[in-house]
Amino acid sequence: MRRLGYQRYAAQGGDMGALITPELGRVAPEAVIGLHVNAATLGFQPLGPVTEDVLAELTDQERQYLAAIGMFAAEGSGYMAIQSTRPQTLAYGLTDSPVGQLAWIIEKFKEWSTPSAELPDDAVDRDTLLTNVMLYWLTATAGSAARVYYEGRMYAQSGWFPLTRSEVPTAVANFAGDMAIRHWAEEANTIVRWSEFDRGGHFAALEAPDLLARDIREFFRSLR
Questions:
Q1: Model confidence at 78: pLDDT above 70
Q2: What's the pLDDT band for 153 if we cut at 50, 70, 90?
Q3: Do 151 and 165 lie in a common domain?
Q4: What is the value of pTM for the model shown?
Q5: Would 136 be classed as within a structural domain?
Q6: Do 151 and 164 share a domain, yes or no?
Q7: Catalytic site residue 15?
Q8: CB atoms closer than 10 angstroms to residue 1
Q9: Sign of the four-CA dihedral 194, 195, 201, 202
Q10: Residue 163 within any structural domain of the chain
Q11: What residues make up the domain containing 139?
């Protein structure tokens, strides 16, 4: 950003971006005026056992999120296990079969989109879904995409939780299909805004762009 001529700036990210974006506040706090994240599970809470004492401090909603995280770890993280250990083996199958590539990605849109959506294309336009999958298929990049998990395996074993606190003002947009828990988010981040939405999910920019854009604008406008 300095090379582009920006001495002060803000940042926004979701999913892996919600892991990377807060790190900007740790490496360049003098430049980053604020951070906004969505789909903020990785990097915002430790993924592991929770003691009864900590459980008692959580709200009912946070306990529901915690239960959803447990369900994800038990039944929904198979894709992560194979991509972080055998990405090349998986890549041959996905690169050889357009139906396989479609199923591999669309299943995640089904599981992670707004809970009220019965089918993936109830949450995201079908042409957009097919375009997303086509980008992997035509470029044969299933393998390189999976290797993100393989290369990040050691980092994942540390719990995806930062070791130092960020003092940069941070906003979290938690959509209906998300599972961010404020109790832990505040341990390593300076949370000044927390928005809960009753629609949208992990792919908020595709599912509820109006809600996401408005929340980003309102937050950064308050920092001017």
A1: yes
A2: confident
A3: no
A4: 0.90
A5: yes
A6: no
A7: yes
A8: 13
A9: negative
A10: yes
A11: 74-155
